[in-house]
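Q: My labmate handed me this sequence with no annotations at all. I'd like to see what the chain might look like in three dimensions before we decide whether it's worth expressing. Could you predict it?
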Amino acid sequence: MDLQTKALHAGYVKDSQGTMAVPIYQTTAYEFRDVEHAANLFSLKELGNIYTRLNNPTTDVFEKRFAELEGGEAAIATASGMSAIFFAIVNAAEAGDNIICAKQLYGGSLTLNTHTLKRFGIEARFFDVHKPQEIEKLIDDKTKVIFFESLTNPSIDVADIEAITAVANKYNILTVVDNTVATPVLCRPFEFGADITVHSASKYTTGQGLAIGGIMVERKNLLEKLKNNDRYAQFNEADASYHGLVYSEVGLPPYTLRTRLSLLRDLGAVVSPFNSWLFIQGTETLSLRMKEHSKNALMLAEFLESHPKVKKVNYPGLKSNPNFKNAQKYFQDGLCSGLLSFEVGSLQEAEKIVNATKLYSLVVNIGDSKSIITHPASTTHQQLSHEELVACGVPEGLIRISCGLESAKDLIEDIQQALEA
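A: Here is what I predict for the chain of 421 residues:
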């Protein structure tokens, strides 16, 4: 089936009422037929609903549908995009291990990897997303994950996914790709060798800023990489917390299974059934919206590139952009999402422009149907030093825009008046 057809039908078998819309199963628990049935569920002899902290019928549809869109084998929904990233990393790494991350990351991911994971005993090492050759010298026998974004936020760089995954596969290391900005409509990292993708479903998936949630997807046949891999003993040895279960021997997708039975069970960052339902609604129109977001962003980027007050425009759909070649390779039909950024002369000038806009909302979010403007150095990346801002591609004069679905003409006119105010 084509992607748009999957977005409307995948993962849902109509219930006994024949409902066209996926029902919201707003429940915490489920009644078992008898003691044997309950025991079989807990021992994985049967698959079914146990408790909504572990699984839920509405969330199950969202997970199956999104896994289909991404081209993966299984998915697990979480309470936020950050919890999806956290689970994807700590499912592979523990105290004493290290992960290798792109320098160009969303501010929250930088903080998680640099500071919070350090308190768990996990070290983060960094490479330039434009220089995947830097990765190899950072690898040792304790390296468990290589983490990067397919389309970086807010520096708007396009990762060379094949080059990065080639290094990872050489050393049998897992790659985790944050595909939030591109979405599976525009970029499909599994087709280029990635192992795990994560998303903030709060962004383009919901599409209207309605709900907080995240999702993690594992590629097909990931078991082959994990089984008997000395780097990942937790998948090949008995889990004492779950009846001695060995995840690589169950016959189910191992990465999401261990996340569900260990991390989601114990840490509880579970998405609500209602939010899963909202994400399902957003998924149905995701491919249509991403085309319009991308068209608006390209038109705005072309205008900004021609304006004398703009020093630099970051949008890979521009032929002049150094990421253009990668965008043509990795993005569907060359569409590059609705996120762009541009640089002006100073912090003060950037603040003045942001404050002068009328149609754009000053919000720290992306992927909304309404256009959003943000000054990252004073908000999402405020915790970084001047040197760290420059290193991750977020200078103080950078302005980020998430193009919504308004008329491109109106979006351009508002930015023009703000630049010239």
